[in-house]
Amino acid sequence: MITAIQERRAALTIGFEARRQLVPLRDLELLMALPSAQPDPDRLGSGVWAFDASALAAAHPTPKLLAETWLLLVESGDPISLDDLVALAAADDRPQDRAAFWLALQGPQLWFRWRQGLAQPRPLDEIRQLRRQRRQEVLSEQRQQAWHALLKARQPIDPAVLAPRERQEFDRLCAGALAPLETPWPVGLRRAIEAARCSERPADLRRLLLDLGHWDAHRLSSLPGTCWARGFGDALEALAAEIVAAAEAPHPSDASRVDLSGQPCVTIDDPDTREIDDALGLDQDPEGRPRIWIHIADPDRLIAAGSPLDLEARRRAASLYLATGSVSMFPLSLATGPMSLRQGLRCAAWSFAIVLDDDGSIAASTLQRSWITPTYRLSYEDAEELIELAPPQDAYLAELHDLLDRRRRWRLSQGALLLDQPEGRITVLDDQPQLEVVEPSKARLLVAEAMILAGAAVAEFGRQHGLALPYRSQPPAELPPAQELACLPPGPVRHAAIKRCLSRGHTGFQPAPHFSLGLQAYVQATSPIRRYGDLICHRQLASVLDPGATVPPLDAEDLGSLLAEVDAAVREGIQISRDDQRHWQQVWFEHHRQQRWDGVFLRWLRPQDGLALVAIESLAMELPMLCRERSEPGDPLQVRVVEVDSLADLLRLEASDPLRSPGASPAARAPRG
Questions:
Q1: Which end of the chain, N or C, is surrounded by fewer C-beta atoms within 10 Å?
Q2: Cα–Cα distance, 626 to 159 (Å, whole number)
Q3: Interior CA angle at 99 toward 94 and 105, to 5°?
Q4: What secondary structure letter does DSSP report for 62?
């Protein structure tokens, strides 16, 4: 009801509650003029508008009445005013009749269009179309209600049976489970997930999708969409199969190979290692001096630079190591087939022959392409036993250990830091997390030292020939005084004090010292099946050593550009591996949340927040957690799980005094990584 006119706006009282509102005059439609006697402006129930809500409802035209009125008017098709419509269809012309007919025309009726104060009868075809449309809307609403009921029940569903609208909502749930969404949630979907006792937090959505049968509890969010997740595809697998079939045929590099297949050598790896890219042997040089042989697989024989498989390996940059197993840089048919150094088979290799001086320095070294035939494939446990027992028929492994131990002591005299300690890692067997503690055994130290020795020999070769190679270096560091280190317990505590002083490694294209290795130059070159940078290094060597080489070595600028491309993929792979290991650590702690472990304080990470690094020696892990105040390196602690939720990427650990109640100190979220 209009109570006043103010310029181009009308002051209204609206509804039976007489809500006051200003509305532009152009938005008003006249239903009935007021008599001269003015009603009470604060309510409708006065004067001509003396009716209530029940009277208005009683006057509302039925669908049948509207249909009958439409039949009278549709033939002419002429629009009709509200006055004439009420006079034609209503028994009386009361204010409530006019209001009721006007409201009906604004509502979802089929028969009339209301335009500019006139009711226009709809054509029959339009009414039929509206009926079909509204039927579809009803069915759509029913489907959505049924879908939301499924969400509420949290029972497995088949997305394939969902209609497009519901499938969009399902896809939104999946997207929200990966990361918080920036766009608002549809009201209906938000209410549905609330009814399912779920929030919009990614962790809660993951649990909901897990109940619906559409989330892998161990899904790694950083892996989907990467080259490792896509696989190699049929075309590349077919190329790999062709290369495998032709592996025994002559290749251009074969002419320069030295046949060392009669020389005994062994490979030493974990039992589950599939890509075998190094082997070790021992004989005497012409002067009778012990000569160490380090053989490295030569995949460059089979994979041409710039070929499709080479470009795919470059995209991956390295094999990816996950708790469930590795994802190879090359198709497995190649990586575990003719590329690998397989027991009893003739294999293409790069062979380093190195003679050590009495002090452990390199007295002589040669590098050549070769053919070798590995005599045995040994596990680290097998090699450890042969080193310890040194049987007469296989004594060379113990001799090799002694030679490489001499080399290790020489590096120590050059300032090398020997920080070997047990390492705990979670692996997965039959979907169950298993703790694997790798001890720095004699066999593992032997292999590690041999690989470092080969890297030093390659670096020296590069220096002598002025060859651009990916030299790994590390700036000198100022370590804690020896007296201070001597006061710390040996092992993780002392190592932590040293590691915090070290600088990050650097890759350059000129020889430079590597502080913690105690070397004047070093190049990683011993895993060309698993690291693309090592394969690049082999190609640089071949461009100098191979008499038939037609491609000159890359200069520092071109090598730098290539390695920059590879480095981005390397960092991505490292992050995925860390994410994977962090997740499985959380799953492992979920299975052991009631346990307690003895820990030892290593160092403060954020002392202002009470966050420190603590070693749990029985697990061979160093993890961040809140510690009691005034903790010092070497202090014994007791560690417990406060909260762990692998779906929420959450692990909260607490370290307290062994004599104190575990609940006496606060807990904090262990930071990612």
A1: C
A2: 44
A3: 130
A4: P
Residue bearing tokens 């307690």: 596
Of the given ranges (16-25, 73-82, 517-526, 611-620), which has the lowest mean pLDDT?
Answer: 16-25
Query: Which tens digit of pLDDT belongs to each residue from 534-551?
Result: 999 999 999 999 877 778
Cα three-residue angle 251-252-258, rounded to 5 degrees: 85
The tokens of 578 are what?
């860390």
**DSSP character at residue 249:** S
* Confidence band of 664 (pLDDT split at 50, 70, 90): very low
Any residues with CB less than 8 A from the CB of 175 and at least 6 apart, and which? 181
Q: Give the H/E segment covering residue 447.
A: helix 442-464
Exposure class string for 123-134: b at 16+ Cβ within 10 A, else e: eeeebeeeeeee
pTM, to two decimals: 0.80
127: left (phi over 0), alpha (psi -120 to 50) or beta: alpha
Residue type, 320: L
Nearest Cα to Cα of residue 63 among 107, 22, 97: 107
Rg value, the chain, Cα: 39
Take residue 385 and report the two structure tokens written for it: 């036993």
Helix axes 556-591, 532-545, angle to 10 degrees: 150
**E strand or H helix at 233:** helix 233-245
* CA pair distance 173, 166, nearest whole angstrom: 11
What single DSSP character describes residue 523?
B
Across 285-357, the runs of DSSP E, i.e. the strands, are 290-297, 320-322, 325-327, 347-356
